[in-house]
């Protein structure tokens, strides 16, 4: 059963272990307004530690994923109120992107349509991303005289090779979903009518894995990107020790199935968590 956020601009439902969260301003191509940003944070917080799902998928209602920040409500109206209002709106937007980036459970961006400008923030915040071939990705800021701010330039630099990041940011040309996959903005692109099935398939694979290990893994990959090798090595040793301390039974059960039962092959999938509930 679909539920709506307090202002109706976020829709969500939980089904078969997957939380499907959607931008719900289809008439505005799901542009992010201050109201949407507040509602999205509230929805993410209300869902994060529920036991009835293990993977969160972020998508959009209608023909867009998110066309970025709402020019009228987010920019013009707040700028008219002064710097304080602008900073408050920025904190609300960046706040839920940050919450999503370090979310307790794996997250997948299912980009069903337009993804522009500010939409790159939550795109990067999701652990994995899949797009429809028909989707459109764009940093159009240069076309109306500003730089790609709000983290968009950082996302381009993080996900794309240097020359492609420069071209994408400076030219203001759109990428299709297919090009976005080729360039590295998303993991895969496929026809729109196959997108949800593929995302569901990936989510089910994640659901079979140890949730403590998944959280530790996604955090580790994000953290080590900015570390030297030696610092990353030390961090990963400590992170592994912490994960083992928090869930030692899961690791022991996997080892038992591999060595004693010979029923589990790590290269071919996850161990059977139903034997311990780990």
From TrEMBL:
CDD domains: crotonase-like. InterPro entries: ClpP/crotonase-like_dom_sf, Enoyl-CoA_hydra/iso, Enoyl-CoA_Hydratase/Isomerase. It comes from the Bacteria. Belongs to the enoyl-CoA hydratase/isomerase family. Signal peptide: none annotated. GO terms for biological process: isoprenoid catabolic process. It comes from Sphingomonas hengshuiensis. The lineage of its organism: Bacteria, Pseudomonadati, Pseudomonadota, Alphaproteobacteria, Sphingomonadales. This is p-hydroxycinnamoyl CoA hydratase/lyase. It holds the Pfam family ECH_1. Its EC number is 4.2.1.17. Gene3D superfamilies: 2-enoyl-CoA Hydratase, Chain A, domain 1 (3.90.226.10), 6.10.250.2850. GO terms for molecular function: enoyl-CoA hydratase activity. Keywords: Lyase. The keyword Oxidoreductase does not apply.
